[in-house]
């Protein structure tokens, strides 16, 4: 079931990536929902995903706090 939640989170983040504020809000929700080891996978995915979308780089501050 955990992979399902991680995949769902990634799909939501992909869908809202057009808006940095919305992306940040969804990322904050994901942090509250996912387990610590899932967050590690999400961090790696986010680093790859935001390479293509530099406007979202500022949202990554949320995962480091």
Automatic annotation (TrEMBL):
It comes from the Bacteria. This is Uncharacterized protein. It comes from Flavobacterium ammoniigenes.
